[in-house]
Design brief:
Oligomer: single chain
CATH class of the largest domain: Mainly Alpha
Largest sheet: 2 strands, antiparallel
Number of domains: 2
CATH topology of the largest domain: Muramoyl-pentapeptide Carboxypeptidase, domain 1
Strand order of the largest sheet: 1-2
CATH architecture of the largest domain: Orthogonal Bundle
Number of strands: 2
Order of helices and strands: EEHHHHHH
Structural class: mainly alpha
Mean pLDDT: 74
Low-confidence stretches: 1-29, 90-110
Helix content: 25-40%
Length: about 190
Amino acid sequence: MVCGVIALGGGSAVAASGDQDAPPKASTASDSALSGATVRAAQRKLGVTADGVIGPVTRAAIRAYQRDEDLKVTGRLDNATLSSLGLRGRAASTQADGGATAGETPERETSSAIPADLRRTLEKIAACESGGDPRAVSANGLYRGKYQFSRPTWRSVGGKGDPAKASEAEQDRRAATLYKREGAAPWPHCGR
C-alpha cells in the first residue's frame, strides 16, 4: 500500500493512504470525543490503516470485530469495544496532531498486569508459535492468533469469537490464564 502525507495550507497535514476512509467529518459525535491517538491505536488493533479517521473502512472493521467478540454491533468505538481492544477511551485532544494533551493519561494495555517473568515466557512462546503476530492463522486454519489457540482452547479460557481477531492484549491475558492453568503443555514444541 502506498501511504504519504498531503500538505494543506496553514501547516496542517493529512495522511493519504489506500484505506479510502472518509474525511474527518465522517466521525459521529460520540467518536469525536476520542483523541486521534486512541483512534489510531484502535485502528492498529483492528488491522486497518492507522490514520486517526473513522471512515467506512474503519467502521466496517469495528463492526466485524464487535460481531466476532459478541459485543453490541454499533460500528463505533464505544467503551465496551475500546475495553475489549485493551484500550481506554480518552478525551479529544486539542493538539493539531491528535496527540495527548497535558494531564492526559497514556493508553494502557491491560496485558501489563501479567508478571514480568510470565510475560517473558509468553513472549518466547508467541515468537515460536506465530513470530509474535496476533493475526497469524495456521495453514489448516485450526490454530489462530499470537499463541496459536484452537477455538476450543480459546473458549476454555474465556475467549469469544476468533482468537486471531482479538486484541493482542486479550490474547496475552488468555495465554497467561492458560499457562497458569496448564503450564507449557498446550505448546508442546514452543513451550519447552
